[in-house]
Specification:
The structure holds two protein chains of two kinds. By secondary structure, chain A is of the alpha/beta class. Chain A has one domain: Cobalamin-binding domain (Rossmann fold, 3-Layer(aba) Sandwich). Chain A contains five helices and five strands; from the N terminus they run βαβαβαβαβα. In chain A, strand 1, helix 1 and strand 2 form a beta-alpha-beta unit. The radius of gyration of chain A is 13 Å and the shape is globular. Chain B has two domains: 399 residues, Alpha-Beta Barrel (TIM Barrel), CATH 3.20.20.240; 63 residues, no CATH class. Chain B contains 21 helices and ten strands. A nine-stranded parallel beta sheet of chain B has the order 5-4-3-2-1-9-8-7-6. In chain B, helix 7 links the parallel strand 4 and strand 5. In chain B, helix 2 runs parallel beside helix 5, helix 11 packs across helix 15 and helix 19 packs antiparallel against helix 20. The chains are: A alpha/beta, B alpha/beta. At the A-B interface, helix 1, strand 2 and helix 2 of A face helix 3, helix 17 and strand 10 of B. Strand 2 of chain A pairs antiparallel with strand 10 of chain B.
Chain lengths: 131, 550
């Protein structure tokens, strides 16, 4: 049997805006991936779980534009330190428009702003997940 | 002139069925038949008369315009003070404090996890000193303030405001304002990462504040039941007001159960409410009118209230943040204006207009100004304030008000079946309901059944508007930590320790915590120090962040 794509999803820090995450979790599950949702976590917790759970994809959500970029920088730093660069990292939620290129520069594979069609997130993962 | 019927083209309608946002079917046109059963005195009454459908005051906005109360907070107390002064100069008539996530969680700037959360979504506040700076030079004896915490930071933040007012020489008996303090509001719709003590205990703390201020700060509204949060999280219009009623009932039951000598007319007149004004224009109007009638019935029939103030639903509205879009952000200004119009046609007492950039960040000075002007244009230019309940008697609006109310009663019964709101929240049932409603909405947007301009229709590949966005002060974390250090050097630590010990004792004994909280805050005990006492007594929260494989 083919192994399902394993996706770790998390809300970053204390951000309480859960709607987007719930919707994405459901779409991922319906799209045939296995979702490991860990709720609200700080960067260390996210990277730690990604390692333990041996996931293929890390999906992170935050609607706090005040801290999302800094926290993602920290996530990506830990990912590099722990040699998890083979994971596909996607970020959903809010970074200010001018900061979107910075997300990519720090190694985030794709950014999905609010209002993104959830099906496009699922197909992005399927097309880009490391084999 | 008589029309020639044969010339009228019968157009096919655009859809098979037209419904409100919550799914109530609406007809092509409404006629007297739709409200044939309506009895004016029994079902509507004039403004200022039971059952208050048409408004709680006889003169409504002819007597007093609604309060322009903009929810606001950014960076530090100093920066927020500047913003408040600016907004006050531009004509706001009420303040409303938006705290950051660190404050909401009851953390000091040097507590674990706080560094990432300082300045997210609001102002960082950790002692009474911050309150002093935030309201420096502002006339709080004339202009009321809404303190908007989450349940676990309710007593500390409100207490800071009280202590600051007392220090300024203001008699607490005359202090006017509101604390959101609805213990069930956020707990009902999200797994709250800022939770610092278990729900039941936080519920007790909120009711302690309500009980203490009923006697000591009699003009203060210690609980503003806030359906806004679960509406934002996904529920529809009638679920929103059913939740609102259920939450208020839960708190009344708790206070009566305590048997501390207060009857409903001693504390219910202080209740206020905080609703959403969402996108479905007429359904929102119907919702606000229906909510007033429900509340009056509940207080009359269920609690036998005598004081008319116990039966009047006084409410603040906030336009729906969840209706704002990241795409084409200036469109949000138009959404907000329609939502403000709906609330002004519904007789709200106080309003917050969201800003066009709020789907992206804390409002800039520029966008905050437009929110104020949006309300002022509604108040001063378009004459909607001249007549109380201008839509009363409309076949459609009255019929829809009845429909929304009917659905809300059914849903309230459903909540009762799940043990009332406290039980329904604790068991997770209500949260599942919120999620179900949100999924339905999402499916409608996905399938194109529900249009969102700029998101699933009228999309553009390039952003058309040039908008500048707010950024947090990059030095904020260091600044707040230095400020905490300085505070600890300047205050008398022995006084703080004594106050914390007293707080520990009254918390354990089950007495009302507020006198001890006030004592502690006045000697500059921090929010984190108070929270730590409660955490140590109430025990840790069962972690919700465990991995769940779906």
């Amino acid at each position: 049997m083919e192994r399902k794509i394993r996706v770790l999803t998390a809300k970053l820090g204390f951000d309480m805006h859960n709607r987007g995450m719930s919707v994405v979790n459901r779409a991922l599950r319906d799209g045939g991936t296995e979702v490991v949702y860990i709720g609200n976590q700080f960067p260390e917790g996210i990277a730690e779980t990604a390692l333990q759970e041996d996931v293929d994809v890390i999906g992170i959500s935050s609607l706090n534009s005040a801290s999302s970029l800094e926290l993602m920088e920290r996530v990506m730093g830990i990912i590099k330190k722990k040699h998890l660069e083979d994971k596909l990292v996607i970020f959903g939620g809010i970074v200010l428009p001018d900061d979107v290129p910075k997300l990519k520069e720090m190694g985030v594979n794709e950014y999905f702003p609010p209002g993104s069609n959830v099906d496009s997130i699922v197909s992005y993962i399927k097309e880009n997940v490391p084999q | 002139m008589k029309s020639n019927k044969s010339n009228i083209v019968k157009r096919k309608e655009r859809k098979e069925v037209f419904t409100t946002s919550s799914g109530i079917p609406v007809k092509r046109v409404y006629t007297p038949e739709d409200i044939a059963d309506l009895q004016y005195d029994r079902d509507l009454g004039s403004p200022g008369e039971e059952p208050y459908v048409r408004g709680i005051y006889p003169t409504m906005y002819r007597g007093r315009l609604w309060t322009i109360r903009q929810f606001s907070g950014l960076n530090s107390a100093e920066d927020t003070n500047k913003r408040y002064k600016y907004m006050y100069q531009q004509g706001i008539t009420g303040f409303s404090i938006a705290f950051d996530n660190a404050t909401l969680a009851g953390l000091d700037p040097d507590d674990e996890g706080a560094e990432f959360e300082i300045g997210t979504g609001g102002v960082n506040v950790f002692s009474m000193k911050d309150m002093e700076e935030m309201f420096d030079g502002l006339p709080i004896e004339k202009v009321s303030t809404a303190v908007i915490p989450i349940m676990w930071s309710t007593c500390q933040t409100t207490g800071m405001y009280f202590a600051m007012a007392e220090k300024r020489g203001i008699d607490l008996k005359k202090l006017d304002g509101t604390t959101e303090g609805d213990p069930l509001s956020t707990a009902s719709c999200i797994t709250n990462p800022t939770a610092s003590v278990p729900f039941r205990h936080a519920f007790r703390l909120c009711v302690d504040l309500a009980e203490w201020s009923a006697i000591n700060v009699p003009k203060w509204h210690a609980i503003s039941f806030t359906s806004y949060n679960y509406r934002e999280a996904g529920v529809n219009a009638y679920q929103e007001i059913a939740g609102l009623m259920a939450a208020a009932i839960a708190v009344i039951e708790e206070e009566l159960h305590r048997d501390r000598g207060l009857g409903v007319d001693d504390f219910v007149p202080q209740f206020t409410f905080h609703l959403s004004s969402h996108s479905d224009f007429f359904e929102e109007i119907a919702k606000m009118r229906a909510a007033r009638r429900m509340w009056c019935k509940i207080m009359t029939e269920r609690y036998n209230a005598k004081d008319p103030h116990s039966k009047m639903l006084r409410f603040h509205i906030q336009t729906a943040g969840s209706s704002l879009t990241y795409q084409q952000p200036l469109n949000n200004a138009i959404r907000v204006a329609y939502q403000i119009l709906a609330a002004s046609l519904s007789g709200a007492q106080s309003m917050h207009a969201c800003s066009y950039d709020e789907a992206l960040c804390i409002p800039t000075e520029e966008s905050a100004l437009l929110s104020i002007r949006t309300q002022q244009i509604a108040q001063h230019e378009i004459n909607v304030t001249n007549v109380a309940d201008p839509l009363g008697g409309s076949y459609f609006v009255e019929s829809l008000t009845n429909e929304v109310e009917k659905k809300a009663w059914e849903y309230l019964e459903e909540i009762d079946k799940h043990g009332g709101f406290v039980e329904a929240v604790e068991s997770g049932w209500f949260r599942a309901e919120v999620e179900k409603a949100e999924m339905k909405r999402e499916d409608e947007v996905r399938s194109g059944e529900r249009d969102v301009v700029g998101v699933n229709c009228f999309k553009m590949t390039e952003e058309p508007y040039k908008v500048s966005f707010f950024r947090r002060d990059p030095q904020l974390v260091e600044k707040q930590r230095a400020k905490l250090q300085k505070l600890k050097e300047e205050r008398d630590d022995r006084e703080v320790e004594k106050a914390l010990e007293e707080l520990r004792q009254v918390t354990e004994s089950g007495e009302n915590v507020m006198p001890a909280v006030m004592k502690a805050l006045k000697v500059y005990t921090t929010i984190g120090e108070i929270s730590k006492v409660w955490k140590s007594i109430f025990g840790p929260i069962v972690p919700s962040g465990l991995a769940i494989t779906m």
